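Weekly sync notes, structure subgroup
Attendees: PM, AL, DS (notes)

Item 1: joint prediction request from the bench team. They want all two components modeled as one assembly rather than separately. Inputs as received:
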Amino acid sequence: MLQVPFIRENKALVIERLAKRNIDATQLIDDVVTFDEDRKRLQTELDNTLAESNTLSKEIGNLYKSGEAQKAHLLKEKTSQLKEASKQLSEALSNKVEALNELLYKIPNVPNKLVPRGNSEADNEEIFNEGDVPKLHDGALPHWELAKKYDIIDFELGTKITGAGFPVYKGKGARLQRALIAYFLNKNTAAGYTEYQLPLMVNEASAFGTGQLPDKEGQMYHVTEDNLYLIPTAEVPGTNIFRDVVLGETELPVSITGYTPCFRREAGSYGAHVRGLNRLHQFDKVEIIRVEHPTKSYEALDGMVEHVKDIIKELKLPYRILRLCGGDTSFASALTYDFEVFSTAQDRWLEISSVSNFETFQANRLKLRFKNSDGKNELAHTLNGSALALPRVLAGILENYQTKDGIVIPEVLQPYTGFKIIN
RNA sequence: GGAGAAAUGGCAGAGUGGUCGAAUGCGGCAGUCUUGAAAACUGUUGAGGGUCACACCUCCGGGGGUUCGAAUCCCUCUUUCUCCGCCA
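Output from the run, pasted for the record:
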């Protein structure tokens, strides 16, 4: 969530930038400012009442000690009035704070100045494009048919065991998954990220911390018996490591990576373009997360983009990088780059990574701070990205590397798979 | 799952219903001394709201209650530890 002082001091900028998301926030921003003024007024009133009551209580104590019980009784009457007043004030105050927070929860992050204005993916800006699109042989197949042909992914079996969107990887398919995970983790740790194994379920506070709650509750699987949520991404447990944490300035930057399965209900998204691996309820992802000094976060974002680029290049997949427009940038992000692999057999781009700088938006809700050089606590910047999401990388490999003789394994993966071709 | 004990500042650890945002030690920071460092000594050192700055208010695991007044008493939840049971 945004910080109220920032909104107050940069009203025009906030409104102008939010317009990139096609949001007219004028009313919302005005409301935030007036609600906050109300909040301050109530707080001051309450504080004064409490101060008076504190003073009287001390006096009463003194009167009892000096044996003037009657005078004390008189003062007690006064304090009970004050108590009633403070009760009402604090109720009004907490209502106001809640109302203010509800407004703040509705306001997405302020896009960076680089973000193009726009509504949908059509307005995203392609900033980089690399890799040759292979010429496939006649009769090239989409990955779901390749998966069947070579018996490496069984979608029907997953449907039997669990339901649609829970594929079963078999034989060389399973081994290829494991290879990709190991390869990604090795690349990330080599780049300085510390590997973590994280819980796959999180509590309510964590889901709140990264903003899955209260808005996106329907997107997560909820274990109601214990009130836990299955993680939709490692970002949730990974970023919540830093909830209510004050880091030393020298501890920055923090870079972590982790492999986790991800669970998403994807309610309402069915259809032809979500076939096969394109959209799943359970999938694997290796995530990178950084906590940065505010002055360094955009440098770090560029570094993450280069890092992901390097991985895709090594896999020799044709890809492009998009700078997302305002309308397509996620709620918490200030600037997002998407990576897409071109699938020749499907003749379409598949999103395989999304790298974002959240600036202080997440940190504010998480209360993730660092002690700056003045000794003051200051909100840190958080960033994350996929490096990478497995299913569509797998789809890209299967479809782009298919030959008449089978699916060739990209060279960098061969040490991990132990085989060179799936046939 | 059962029985018991506990939760206090960065850490360790005191704390009688009022004078407690909280002793003390360690650590951190600044200074004295020193060519420099160490040691020693002196000072300083939680967070949030609020203010031009003060004042003032809130916070002793979370929530609720008793009381004029709660770190301290009561209820409840959570977590940790010890013992028992179960278990990869």
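Discussion: Residues 39-40, 43-44, 46-51, 53-54, 56-62, 64-65, 72-73, 75-80, 82-83, 246, 375, 377 of chain A lie near RNA strand B (CB under 10 Å from a C1').
Action: AL to compare against the crosslinking data before next sync.
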